[in-house]
């Protein structure tokens, strides 16, 4: 009997395949050390975290969240309510963010490679294990002054042009007038172009968590000569690409973690010893970043960004790992010298400005009759209007909720994005500059590999003012906004600018949302119809001489609120 019991425990450990940061035990009354993934429910964990976060300001609703029986289909309602509560006051927003993150850091587990399972907070007490550091300097000489160049290929026409100088400024204001981005986003882009000295990053240090990410700023920072501290998974192919890009094609410098001392190794002998897994080796990566930043930045400000993306529950785990790395760096190096950077999604719940709320309602009022008829359908083809809700904050001012959440993305994705929102709110209040500009829907290679996603993106432009962008463009333009936030002392990312501003409204400043926040309809409802229209125009319509099905692009639009003195749109 004892032998069978030991065998059962051994089997349970064999099934423990997810080492490192992990969801907590939820519905299994067994010792923590014997737990496996089967004893952990991501749904119950998410409910617990949102419940604790909301209960910090509304205990009754917090209990309601915990009692939710249809979490998978109803989680968006609770995410939206947490945003509404945060909009009531800055105090609420801070309380929700702190309670949510505290609950995650206190309850998540850490699977050790020796089979033991301990609490994540306990694992992070390891402050000694670390990596060696390798450093490679680019060999490409700098020629002239750095210049911002944005490769823009229109997703639905295929037309390409390189945007720089006045052409970039004109295009930015054209997008703002059209409603594809916000006016303060266009202002930020214009400011970077008009201050070319900001683009010289030779004296700036950036920590890139997830350096090879398709949406990360690696290429922009590399091209502008930055000092890069790169963190990514320990795969030789990843480090071959990153290191060789810097060495052969830039004047930048890249520092990276290694499992043995750097003695001038080259080729695969170097690449095979680079990298660190942020999920499985979180304490070690945290310690290395903490110790490396002072050596590279030498007391000057540093910017650390979270760009790692994984599917499903892995996305929550890697974001929690990134969060603790960023939090601990800010606390050790100093909030006033540690800038944070995130790339939030447009498909989320946000508090929007009066102008954006007005634009959504006006765009819906002006939508074609065929769109409005489809609102009464059931199932596939039903058009769901963008839901905005106006509530009064504690000062008696209206605050507008925009619900762009996509149920199909799932609660794990929403929870991972809450980690970023909550950390942004707390870090800015603590004195860090935080760059948090909503990024556009981007046609990355992984997205385009799915034919239905690709088709949906191909037809998305039929819903004004939505525009899909390629990853090269998104990388470059979000890099421009990052430069603005860390180089312009007047940016709202700076905690000294508008310090009393409600954080929930600040999160939507400088949004390059690609039209999603102003669209009359939720993207979840237009995706299937957009794919149908795209496929019809591409494969069927041309056979019968029909070039375009009806769209909303002919509808009247309400312009962005352009401030006096802004250049006219081209």
Cα radius of gyration in angstroms? 24 Å
- Main beta sheet: 7 strands, mixed
* Count of DSSP-assigned helices: 21
The helix content is 40-55%
Kindly report the spatial arrangement of strands forming the biggest sheet.
4-9-8-7-10-11-15
Structural class: alpha/beta
Quick check: average pLDDT? 89
Poorly predicted runs = 1-17, 544-551, 553-570
Give the terminus-to-terminus CA distance.
80 Å
Inertia-based shape: globular
Report the strand count.
Answer: 17
β-strand percent reads: 5-15%
How would you summarize what this structure contains?
This protein is of the alpha/beta class and 570 residues long.
What can you tell me about this protein's structure?
By secondary structure, the protein is an alpha/beta fold. It is built from 21 helices and 17 strands. The protein has helices at 2-14, 42-55, 59-66, 71-88, 90-107, 120-123, 165-178, 183-194, 218-223, 236-249, 267-271, 282-297, 313-333, 354-365, 369-374, 411-430, 445-448, 451-459, 471-487, 503-506, 523-540, and strands at residues 20-22, 109-111, 117-119, 132-137, 150-153, 160-163, 205-209, 227-231, 253-258, 302-306, 338-342, 349-352, 387-392, 398-403, 434-436, 442-443, 469-470. The protein has a 7-stranded mixed β-sheet with strand order 4-9-8-7-10-11-15, with helices on both faces. It has a 3-stranded antiparallel β-sheet with strand order 1-2-3. The protein has a 3-stranded antiparallel β-sheet with strand order 12-14-13, sandwiched between helices. Helix 2 runs antiparallel to helix 5, helix 8 crosses helix 19 (471-487) and helix 12 packs across helix 13. The longest helix has 21 residues, at 313-333. The radius of gyration is 24 Å and the shape is globular. 49% of the residues are buried. Residues 1-17, 544-551 and 553-570 have low confidence and may be disordered.
């Amino acid at each position: 009997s004892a032998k069978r019991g030991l065998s059962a425990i051994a089997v349970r450990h064999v099934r423990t395949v997810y080492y490192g940061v992990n969801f907590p035990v939820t519905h299994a009354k067994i010792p923590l050390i014997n737990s496996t993934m089967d004893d952990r429910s991501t749904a119950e964990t998410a409910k617990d975290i949102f419940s604790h976060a909301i209960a910090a300001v509304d205990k009754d609703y917090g209990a309601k969240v915990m009692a939710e029986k249809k979490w998978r289909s109803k989680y968006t309602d609770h995410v939206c309510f947490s945003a509404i509560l945060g909009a009531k006051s800055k105090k609420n927003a801070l309380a929700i963010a702190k309670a949510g993150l505290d609950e995650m850091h206190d309850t998540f587990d850490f699977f050790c490679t020796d089979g033991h399972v301990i609490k994540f907070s306990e694992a992070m007490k390891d402050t000694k294990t670390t990596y060696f550091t390798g450093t490679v300097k680019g060999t490409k000489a700098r020629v002239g002054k750095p210049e911002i160049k944005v490769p823009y290929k229109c997703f639905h026409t295929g037309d390409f042009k390189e945007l720089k100088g006045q052409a970039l400024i004109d295009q930015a204001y054209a997008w703002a007038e059209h409603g594809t981005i916000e006016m303060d986003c266009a202002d930020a882009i214009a400011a970077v172009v008009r201050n070319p000295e900001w683009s010289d990053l030779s004296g700036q240090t950036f920590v890139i968590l997830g350096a090879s990410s398709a949406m990360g700023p690696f290429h922009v920072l590399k091209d502008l000569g930055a000092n890069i501290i790169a963190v990514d998974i320990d795969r030789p192919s990843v480090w071959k690409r990153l290191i060789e890009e810097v060495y052969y094609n830039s004047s930048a410098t890249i520092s990276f973690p290694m499992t043995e001392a750097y003695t001038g190794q080259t080729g695969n002998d170097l690449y095979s010893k680079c990298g660190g897994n942020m999920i499985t080796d979180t304490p070690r990566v945290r310690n290395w970043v903490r110790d490396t930043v002072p050596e590279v930045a030498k007391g000057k400000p540093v910017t650390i960004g979270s760009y790692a993306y994984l599917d499903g529950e892995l996305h929550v785990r890697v974001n929690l790992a990134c969060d603790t790395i960023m939090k601990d760096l800010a606390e050790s190096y100093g909030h006033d010298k540690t800038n944070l950077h995130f790339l939030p999604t447009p498909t989320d719940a946000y508090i929007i400005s009066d102008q954006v709320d007005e634009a959504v309602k006006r765009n819906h009022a002006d939508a074609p009759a065929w769109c409005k008829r489809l609102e009464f359908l059931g199932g596939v083809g039903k058009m769901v209007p963008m839901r905005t809700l106006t509530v009064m904050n504690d000062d008696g001012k209206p605050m507008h909720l925009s619900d762009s959440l996509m149920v199909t993305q799932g609660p794990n994705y929403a929870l991972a994005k809450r980690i970023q929102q909550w950390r942004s709110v707390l870090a800015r209040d603590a004195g860090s500059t935080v760059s948090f500009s909503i990024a556009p829907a981007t046609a990355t290679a992984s997205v385009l590999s799915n034919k239905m996603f690709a088709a949906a993106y191909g037809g998305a432009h039929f819903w004004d003012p939505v525009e899909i962008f390629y990853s090269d463009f998104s990388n470059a333009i979000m890099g421009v906004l990052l430069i603005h936030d860390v180089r312009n002392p007047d940016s709202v990312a700076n905690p000294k600018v508008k310090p009393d501003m409600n954080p929930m409204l600040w999160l939507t400043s400088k949004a390059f949302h690609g039209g999603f926040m102003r669209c009359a309809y939720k993207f979840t409802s237009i995706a299937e119809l957009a794919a149908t229209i795209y496929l019809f125009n591409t494969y069927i319509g041309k056979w019968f001489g029909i070039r375009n099905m009806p769209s909303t692009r002919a509808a009247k639009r309400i312009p962005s609120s352009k401030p006096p003195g802004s250049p006219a749109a081209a």
